[in-house]
Amino acid sequence: MGEAKRTQYSVHDSADGKYSQKQMSLSQASALSFGGTANLGHAAPALRQALLTWYGEQGRDLPWRRSRDPYAIWISEIMLQQTQVKTVMPYYQRWLKLFPTVADLAKADQQTVLKAWEGLGYYARARNLHKTAQLIVKQHDGVFPEVFEDAIALPGIGRTTAGGILSAAYNQPVAILDGNVKRVLARLVALPKPPAKAMKELWQLSEQLLDPQHPRDFNQAIMDLGATLCTRHRPSCLLCPWQSYCTAYRQNLQSELPMTESRAPLPHKQIGVAVIHDNDGRILIDRRKQEGLLGGLWEFPGGKIEPNESFEECVKREIKEELDIDIEVNDRLITVDHAYSHFKVTLNVFNCTHISGEPKPIECDEIKWVTLDEIDSYPFPKANGQIIDAIKEQAKG
DNA sequence: CATTCGTGGGT
DNA sequence: TACCCAAGAAT
């Protein structure tokens, strides 16, 4: 190789700035020839063997792995969607004590289910768990379905989750493609594009590699590999059972892969929020509609500020529109900044006094006046926790 | 195929 | 600090 091999250029098309800017040499870039089905068929047996041996020695001891109960495994798979193991652990343990069986979950009311989920985020997962539990009781004799087509037809269960459950609970040879597997495979073949742009190829790879003799352990093992060694930052390649098979490692690209797509900055919204007090020491809360953001959870009413509007005007207007009552807007209680997955908010929270009118659920499902003792039994979004703390603090002092 | 869905942790 | 990302699914 001559001088050309050190030629620096962006692998990505910087013209549209879509991919993050990372530099690599021409020889490295030319090695990124993966397109379509990778030729890993011949190496699959050796890859399986190396991975399973490593898993036997270094695999994580996780509570749901000690169980073969499809219900418990299902719960864990849903909780683990876009959520780290460490975060899930306490929720998982509490959940199984609250709802030990599918039947227990099915007969619970949604508020109890959402309260158990409170703080985990992506609340459609909890609503779908509840719905699906009732479906399993009614349509599947109370047992999580063993047929892939039946499983993936259930609310909240996609291809990866179905594969995760069927392989873990029933040892079925069904492939998975979660964040860990995507990253591991992207490095293994030095995938020359963001995983999101190569889903078909990655699924093929996952299916091709899956050990038909040990699907349960293989799927768990490849996830462990991604979670503990083949991490996003500073991967431990020297300890990796796939080191000698890994194209990224061979090309010293492990820190550059997988490729990422840069995202537009999140929009920021200013929200006016009302903590409405009545004359009996109660506060008004409302339950959000089932669909959309934070569906089914409780909140303090309010809404987005309009151009050339003060926070006080915003709060008074929103409360009139949403509840059809008149209030007096008093002092600012607290200001809460919070980031959701696709936008940021500042909650400008004001103490308010109920003046007149019976509140109507115009843009929500339900309204309640609650005391500070009762409020803890309602599921609230994370950002509202600070507001509740501030109200309690205010009541003390 | 792109967007909408939470929250906590890491850099 | 600000941004990225984590055992994804639904629309």
TrEMBL record:
<keyword id="KW-0460">Magnesium</keyword>
<feature type="binding site">
    <location>
        <position position="384"/>
    </location>
    <ligand>
        <name>8-oxo-dGTP</name>
    </ligand>
</feature>
<dbReference type="Pfam" id="PF14815">
    <property type="entry name" value="NUDIX_4"/>
</dbReference>
<dbReference type="GO" id="GO:0035485">
    <property type="term" value="F:adenine/guanine mispair binding"/>
</dbReference>
<dbReference type="InterPro" id="IPR020084">
    <property type="entry name" value="NUDIX_hydrolase_CS"/>
</dbReference>
<feature type="binding site">
    <location>
        <position position="302"/>
    </location>
    <ligand>
        <name>Mg(2+)</name>
    </ligand>
</feature>
<keyword id="KW-0227">DNA damage</keyword>
<dbReference type="GO" id="GO:0000701">
    <property type="term" value="F:purine-specific mismatch base pair DNA N-glycosylase activity"/>
</dbReference>
<keyword id="KW-0408">Iron</keyword>
<dbReference type="GO" id="GO:0046872">
    <property type="term" value="F:metal ion binding"/>
</dbReference>
<dbReference type="Pfam" id="PF00730">
    <property type="entry name" value="HhH-GPD"/>
</dbReference>
<comment type="function">
    <text>Adenine glycosylase active on G-A mispairs. MutY also corrects error-prone DNA synthesis past GO lesions which are due to the oxidatively damaged form of guanine: 7,8-dihydro-8-oxoguanine (8-oxo-dGTP).</text>
</comment>
<dbReference type="InterPro" id="IPR003561">
    <property type="entry name" value="Mutator_MutT"/>
</dbReference>
<protein>
    <recommendedName>
        <fullName>Adenine DNA glycosylase</fullName>
        <ecNumber>3.2.2.31</ecNumber>
    </recommendedName>
</protein>
<dbReference type="InterPro" id="IPR020476">
    <property type="entry name" value="Nudix_hydrolase"/>
</dbReference>
<feature type="binding site">
    <location>
        <position position="322"/>
    </location>
    <ligand>
        <name>Mg(2+)</name>
    </ligand>
</feature>
<dbReference type="InterPro" id="IPR023170">
    <property type="entry name" value="HhH_base_excis_C"/>
</dbReference>
<keyword id="KW-0378">Hydrolase</keyword>
<keyword id="KW-0234">DNA repair</keyword>
<dbReference type="InterPro" id="IPR003265">
    <property type="entry name" value="HhH-GPD_domain"/>
</dbReference>
<dbReference type="InterPro" id="IPR000086">
    <property type="entry name" value="NUDIX_hydrolase_dom"/>
</dbReference>
<dbReference type="InterPro" id="IPR005760">
    <property type="entry name" value="A/G_AdeGlyc_MutY"/>
</dbReference>
<feature type="binding site">
    <location>
        <begin position="299"/>
        <end position="302"/>
    </location>
    <ligand>
        <name>8-oxo-dGTP</name>
    </ligand>
</feature>
<dbReference type="GO" id="GO:0006284">
    <property type="term" value="P:base-excision repair"/>
</dbReference>
<keyword id="KW-0479">Metal-binding</keyword>
<keyword id="KW-0411">Iron-sulfur</keyword>
<dbReference type="GO" id="GO:0034039">
    <property type="term" value="F:8-oxo-7,8-dihydroguanine DNA N-glycosylase activity"/>
</dbReference>
<feature type="domain" description="Nudix hydrolase">
    <location>
        <begin position="266"/>
        <end position="393"/>
    </location>
</feature>
<dbReference type="GO" id="GO:0006298">
    <property type="term" value="P:mismatch repair"/>
</dbReference>
<dbReference type="InterPro" id="IPR015797">
    <property type="entry name" value="NUDIX_hydrolase-like_dom_sf"/>
</dbReference>
<dbReference type="InterPro" id="IPR029119">
    <property type="entry name" value="MutY_C"/>
</dbReference>
<dbReference type="GO" id="GO:0051539">
    <property type="term" value="F:4 iron, 4 sulfur cluster binding"/>
</dbReference>
<keyword id="KW-0004">4Fe-4S</keyword>
<dbReference type="GO" id="GO:0008413">
    <property type="term" value="F:8-oxo-7,8-dihydroguanosine triphosphate pyrophosphatase activity"/>
</dbReference>
<dbReference type="InterPro" id="IPR011257">
    <property type="entry name" value="DNA_glycosylase"/>
</dbReference>
<dbReference type="GO" id="GO:0032357">
    <property type="term" value="F:oxidized purine DNA binding"/>
</dbReference>
<feature type="binding site">
    <location>
        <position position="288"/>
    </location>
    <ligand>
        <name>8-oxo-dGTP</name>
    </ligand>
</feature>
<comment type="similarity">
    <text>Belongs to the Nth/MutY family.</text>
</comment>
<keyword id="KW-0326">Glycosidase</keyword>
<dbReference type="InterPro" id="IPR044298">
    <property type="entry name" value="MIG/MutY"/>
</dbReference>
